[in-house]
Write a structure and sequence with these properties.
- It contains twelve helices and twelve strands.
- The termini are far apart.
- Helix 1 crosses helix 7 and helix 4 packs parallel to helix 5.
- Helix 2 links the parallel strand 2 and strand 3.
- It has a seven-stranded parallel sheet with strand order 3-2-1-4-5-6-10, with helices on both faces. A three-stranded mixed sheet has the order 7-9-11. Strands 8-12 form a two-stranded parallel ribbon.
- 40% of the residues lie in helices and 19% in strands.
- By secondary structure, the chain is of the alpha/beta class.
Length: 295
């Protein structure tokens, strides 16, 4: 297939592009910069100029492709609600080019959308349209497109990591560096799921090839790692003390991260592994954190 990839030069998208090419697909990668165009051309991908706020460029790229993998998202959490709405518009724009066809469209969400609460791991079966996280807009838009006959599926991400970057844990590390303490909330027993970036990239390609309209897949290798353990590894890496922060004091200490650090974000990928024969093989989160160059 000729696959249009958004976020093609990003942390996850770069790996997705390589996986697609290695699997024999052609890639049309979205980029807005000369550096991005050069990096895409260097690995054998075609270049499509534009960005996720240029809806016409998205419609055009989607129209030129046999399938789409949408990994781009603006992770500036100071305007998170606006970014979630921008993602909704981007999904709608690309989906509009797919009406009347069976071309697969893989959209990115987060495992939290599958959370049923009460500390139970999120599952692929579950979606709460009333979830307080505005990221739900992405999956609601997918549902609307599916009702119009678009072959759309969702890959939900956990904390995607290697030994350089680790999802929400990367800003947690920077906060610990700034504050001189690595912290967790209360007992730190809330768990975060995780997946190596190479495994996540492979999952996107399998989801594309499966063409399972309406499916939800979880990019999860480790179901749940207690935040206290994560904080302790960060503390050792930075050589700073580790301590508990009371939930009432979390907003003052963690800032925007307080919306996440007290939450249980455990998730299962049992159904994903069964449906796609996907077996995570990458390094675990703690091992990657231990290998980081904290200096």
């Amino acid at each position: 297939m000729r696959v249009f990839v958004t976020g093609a030069t990003g942390f996850i998208g770069t790996k997705v592009v390589r996986e697609l090419i290695d699997a024999g697909h052609q890639v049309l990668g979205l980029t807005r910069s000369d550096a991005g165009a050069q990096s895409l051309a260097a690995v054998g991908a075609e270049v499509h100029r534009g960005d996720i706020e240029d809806l016409e460029s998205l419609r055009l790229g989607a129209g030129l492709a046999d399938g789409i993998i949408h990994t781009a998202f603006n992770h500036d959490f100071s305007k998170f609600v606006a970014n979630c709405d921008a993602d909704r518009q981007a999904i709608e724009a690309m989906g509009s080019a797919l009406h009347g066809s069976d071309r697969p469209f893989i959209v990115t969400s987060v495992t939290g959308m599958g959370g049923a609460g009460h500390g139970k791991p999120a599952t692929e079966y579950h979606f709460n349209p009333d979830h307080p996280n505005p990221r739900k807009a992405s999956e609601l838009t997918c549902g609307a497109l599916a009702q119009r006959g678009v072959n759309v599926s969702v890959v939900r991400l956990s904390q995607v990591h290697n030994c350089v970057k680790q999802g929400l844990i990367s800003p947690l590390i920077e906060l610990a560096r700034q504050k001189g303490v690595s912290a967790y909330v209360d007992g730190g027993l809330n768990r975060w799921s995780a997946v190596h970036v190479s495994d996540a990239a492979r999952l996107y390609v399998l989801a594309l090839e499966k063409r399972g309209a309406g499916s939800r897949y979880h990019a999860v290798a480790e179901e749940g790692i207690p935040l206290r353990i994560i904080a302790e590894v960060i503390g050792r890496g930075l050589n700073v003390p580790v301590k508990s922060i009371a939930a009432a004091d979390a907003p003052a200490h963690f800032g925007w991260l307080s919306a996440f650090v007290g939450s249980d974000m455990s998730a299962s990928s049992a159904l994903t592994q069964e449906r796609l024969a996907w077996q995570p093989k990458g390094t675990g989160l703690i091992a990657d954190l231990e290998e980081m160059r904290y200096a």
